[in-house]
Structure formats: C-alpha cells, structure tokens
Design goal:
heterodimer, A: about 375 residues, mainly alpha, two-stranded antiparallel sheet, 15 helices, globular, disordered N terminus, B: about 350 residues, ABC transporter involved in vitamin B12 uptake, BtuC
Chain lengths: ~375, ~350
Amino acid sequence: MSTAVSPAPAQAPQPEDGSSQSRSRLGQLPATVLRALLTQRIVLLLVLLLVVVVTMTTLSSNNYLAAPYDLSYMSSALISAVPLVMLGLAELLVITSGRGGIDLSVGAIVSLTSMVFGFAYGEWGWSLWLAILLAAAFGGLCGAVNGFLIAYVGYPALITTLATYYAFSSIAIVINDQQPISTAPIQDFFSTARSIEVPVGDGLPIPLGTLTFLIPIAIVVWVLLNRTTFGRRLYGIGTNDVAAQWAGIDVRRTRFSAYVLAGVISGLVAVVTVAQFASARPDAGVTGTGMALPAITIAVLGGVAITGGIGRVAGVVLATLLIVWLNAGILLAVPGNAGSQYQLLALGVVLVFAALLNGLTNRRYGRTG
Amino acid sequence: MSSSTLTPAGGAPAGEGEHTAQARGRVLPFPITGQEIVLIAVIVALWIALWLGTPAFLTSGSIVPLLVAMAPVALIGIGMTVIIITGGIDVSVASMVMVCAVVVAKAMVDSGVSLPVAVLLSMALGGVLGLVNGVLIAYGRVHAIIITFGTANLFKFVGLQVFGGSTVNGIPDTLDVFGRGADGRTLGVPHSFLLMLVIAALAWYYLRHTPSGRHLYAIGGDADAARLAGVKVQRRVLSAYVLTGLLTGLAACFVIAQGTSTLAPNVGAGMELSAIAAVVIGGTSIMGGRGSVLGTVLGALLVQTVASGVTQLGWRSQLASLFIGIFILIAVGADLLRQRARRTA
C-alpha cells in the first residue's frame, strides 16, 4: 500500500535558485522511476503488461505467430480471465486477513458448488436467479466452515483449507456418483458464456462473463476494501491482529467474514465454469493443478503480501491480464501441446521473479506494496 | 475417540521419577508424544475394524501392498517434516517426483542403466531441484510457499518437456526390488518399506540428537533468535530443502517400481498434498519449531490405511479423501486442545 512508502530519500536540501532545483529533480528522475517500479507493484505490472502486448503485436505484425495478435483476439482471451480474477480476489481477501491466511479449498468449493448449482438449475428446475443465489449462498456456507475453524477455533489456515479441499472435492465426486449434470437447461446456459459484440471500432467480441461477473465482482470487492469499515478492519487485522484487537475490532468476526466472502466468490465462479463447460462437472475446480494454485499465484504476483495486511484489487486484475495475455500470446507462438507447457514456464518464471523482487524491495526500501 | 485415550497416555511419563523426567524434558521432549500414541491407537482400531469388516484385510496379500504404497509418501513426508520444522513448506515435491521419474524411466528405457545408477541419478536430480528451492528460499529470503509454487510450475515444465507429449513405454524391471512383486520382498517384508524405516530412524536420530538437527527446531521457533544464538540459519534451511530433494528422488524410484511399464505425465500428481497431510496428521506444527518423524510415518500409515480400507470395503475410492480431510481436522484439533491445556496449566 502506498501508505507504507517512506518519506523522500535522504537528499541534502538545496536552498539554491529554481533552475538548479529542477535540475536536481531531473537528476533524481531515474532513481524515482526505479523506486516506483520496485515499490509500486501496479507500476511494475503495467510496464510488464506493456512489454508483453508490444512484443506480441510486433511478432504478430512480422508474421511470427500462428494467428494475428490483435484487439479482438486479446478481448476474446479474456474468457479465461473471469475465473482467475474472481478467485484471485477471493485469495486477496483471505491472505490480507493475515495470520497465515490462505485458501487452498477454493477449487474444491467450485467443484462442489457446480454440482449443487447443476442440481438446482438442471434437475430441480429452479429459475436461473434463484439457482445463482443458491450457488453464492452455498459457496458462502463452505467458506463459513473454513472461516469458523480458522477464526473462531484457531486452526492454521493452510491445514484447514487443505482438509476442506479433500473433503469438498470428495463430496463433489460422490454426490452424483461421479457423473456430470448436463441436462437441457444447463446446455442452453452455455449461451451466456458466448461473446457479445461491443460497438467499439468494428465490434470487439467481449466475453459476456467479463461484464456479468468479472467487472461487478471486482468493483464490489474494491468498494468493500477501500470504502467500507470492513475493508479498514481487514487491513487492520492483517497488519497486526493484536493491535486491532486492542483497537476494539472484532478480529474473529472480520477474519470469518473474509473466508465467507471468498466462499461466495468461489460459488459464483462455479456458475461461470458450468456455463463455460455447458455441464456441471464434479471435478471442475480440481482437475490438473486445480484452481487454487493459479489463484494464489495471481494474488502474489498482484502484490498481495503473504504475511497479510497488504494487497490491492488493481494489482490482482493487472496480474491476471498479464498472465492471460501472455498465455494467449504463447499459444499463438508455440501452437499445440507445447504451448501449454511454455505457459507453465512463463507462470513459474514470472512468480519467482516477482517474489525475489519483493524480497529485494523489502530490504532496500522497507515493506511496501 | 482421541481425547479419551489421550489423558492416560500423555500423563504417563510424569509418574516415574519426577526429577529426572523433568530435567530430561527440559533438554529433549519425551521420545513419543501424545499425538503419536493417539495415532497408534487410531491405526490399531482402524485395522481391527477393517479386519472385522473384511476378514481378508489382515492378510499379507492386503497388508504388503499397503506398506509398499505408503513408502513413497512417507519418504517425502520425512523431508517435508524437516522443512516444516524450520517453518517452511515445499509444494513442488509432486513436480519433482515427475521430473525424477521421467528422467530415470527414459534413462532405463534408452540406455538400460543399472539399479544403482538409476537410484543415484534420481537422487542427484532430486537434490539439484531441492537445491534450487533451497537457494531461492534461504538466500532470496522469500516465503517458501510462494517460491515453491513458482518452482512447481518450472519443474513441471521441465518434466513435460522430457516426456515430449507422450508416455514413456516399456520400462524395464530394473527397479523391481522396490516394487510390489515377489522381487520386492525379503521374508515377506517389502524393501521399499524397510528402506523408508531405516531412513526415518536416521532422520529421527538426526533431528533429536545432533546439534544441527536441534538447530532446525530453533530456526522454526524463532529464526532471528536462532541466528543471534549462532545458528547458520541460511545454510540449515538450504540443507532441509536439499534433503527433501534427495528423498523425493528416491521416492520417485519407488513410484516407478510400483507402477506399470508405462509412465504417464500425471505421475506424482497430488503427492505434495498427501505428504503435507501425513506430516500434519503426525502432529508436526505447520508454524514450525515442533514435530517428529515418527508422527509423519504414522500419519502416512493412517492415510494409506484409510485409502486401502475404503477400496477394500467396496466404497467409492474418492470417499477416502473425505476421511483424510476429517482426520486432518481431528489431528490438528487435538493438538490445539493440548496446546491450550499446556498454556493454562
């Protein structure tokens, strides 16, 4: 967070005339830029994003890529950003709540809630709105299990969510005998995952999920964190929960709420994944590496401090855009199976690089965001 | 069931010779903790229940595969215990298993390397990967979970590159001494299990009775205090990750030996979580500074008992993870209760 930035670097005050002062400021410019790059994660992410987009566009215009890397390709790639941003924000909430906060169970909550949503909308014939509400509520319930154990009983978050990861993913598979639900209403629901044309230029295909889920959730989380007492309290307990306790904050309840909110967001991600697959799959959130690890990666890359108390919505969104557009470019540069392998490489390199940079910055400039 | 057995067992050591027990207790904890006694009781209870449910359970045809199957997870768990005691964690072990397994499998198929070479190759490779983690964590001074999430992706990339988009077929039976078959047993005891026990005993002695082993606990308790007391924190932390790499390399050999003659790219998937589950069920504190190898071995045994018990009862195999989740919560909950009791006492 910007509040942690210390006063200007130690520079002898120069009571000279205006010209020399402006010259010294000019001389300081590289240092200021470097400092901004290193301490302001948003600035770093913006620069990296620019590098990725410019590189890819250049490669594209020189015909190195399998297909043109243009605005319409970039905007249709946003479909994979929808679950990533949402789960990244869920991790932002729980990691910021401090005391080793983390949620490994988000992918399992997505799987289980997918099945519940599938039952409600696909088999019991509930209306769409009611089913979405149920998904959010059920996700919140799963999050409440985590939150209760962590905030009120005092379990370590890593262990609790590891245990509930096992439990939720097991129930999700057993609940419908390992069968996905893909009845007619669920299959028709796929239409909501399509792209709509927005009248910018000659019509950009924007994935509908971006408008219906990603942007509203991002705005809600931003408002929660920056414009409500809950947000102030969350940063408070994440920075120092003993001090927060003495300041009269209900630490347990605030931390509990963070996990419930993460659950609600995961429940909504379940709706998005059902729409994307046109079927409610019992392993939706846990196949391959699962959804939790990429979400945590995105959060950390976005500048969320794993020790709690530091993290911004814009960081998570920019980190996701960086990864999604980088991945989209890699798929064009290295087509086929190898492409997805290079995506792993890119994700790993970017994460390790960002983490090392964090360590370096902490030593050089103190704790910053 | 945990709290009832807990009290008499946990209270036992205080009975005999108050003085000596206390004096020893100040230097070293009692060799077996309450958690481990509870675990043994739970495992015995489960085995009896399973034996009543399916009489075939307590036969060598069912116990031997169980012991073979738990060996790799326990082996990785031993390394993970050492790391978690220092206050770290390693979520990249599954990717390490994959890299080691595919390289060794390819070496055996392509150039027919012998058993010692295969094992050494696997352990050396694992050691190098552990070194990468250790250097980044100890000298980059970044939280272990972040670095190992990153390296998990990197290692997976390397492994998939070696796989080259297909499976490794026709793996020779070089490593069968660690497998489930008759070659893998002496007097009915599987070699992989025995080797794991020997390594566990060595690790137990190292952690309990050598200065550098005690330093690991000191680092987990308070790294700054340990540094001020003269512990070479960075070097110790680095060694913990290298050790885990070596053990993971050996575990990869077990995994190859247990599998068929075909190795698929999903080898090792999920092993990081099973290893961490075994460690925490064994009573090692995820906050660092407290834990034992004995608990981890028991934890791995419990996890594997649940897994094979569920299949033997003819239930859905995925139900096993539900029970593992519940066991993790019970184990950690019991530990929390004991800590609270100790603090108020």
